[in-house]
Amino acid sequence: MKILFDQGTPAPLRRALAGHEVDTVYEKGWDQLKNGDLLAIAMLNGYEVLVSTERVFVTNTTCAARNV
Fold it and tell me: What integer pLDDT is reported at residue 46 of this predicted model?
């Protein structure tokens, strides 16, 4: 499973997800993208899960119509 960590997601959490492909937005060079754009590019790149610590991410982004 491809998993993307948004900024602020604790990197040590990656160890608990052994066996999955885990990247961070910083590693991908996407750290300047706004939430909606980030979600769109994550989907285009095959990410199945986006982990974020932002409380407003879900309320400010239309997640219902997306597969991530």
Answer: 95
| Spatial distance between the Cα atoms of 21 and 66, rounded to a whole number of angstroms | 20
Note down the domain range covering 45: 2-60
In contact, 44 and 4? CB cutoff 8 Å: no
Amino acid letter, residue 47: Y
Residue 66 within any structural domain of the chain? no
Total domain count, the chain: 1
What's the average pLDDT block by block, 10 residues per block, for the chain (68 residues)? 94 93 96 90 94 69 52
| Burial of residue 59, with CB atoms counted within 10 A of its CB: 0-12 exposed, 13-18 middle, 19 or more buried | exposed
Write down the residue that tokens 């040590």 correspond to.
12
Distances (CA, A) of 50 to 5, 31, 32, 45: 6, 13, 16, 12
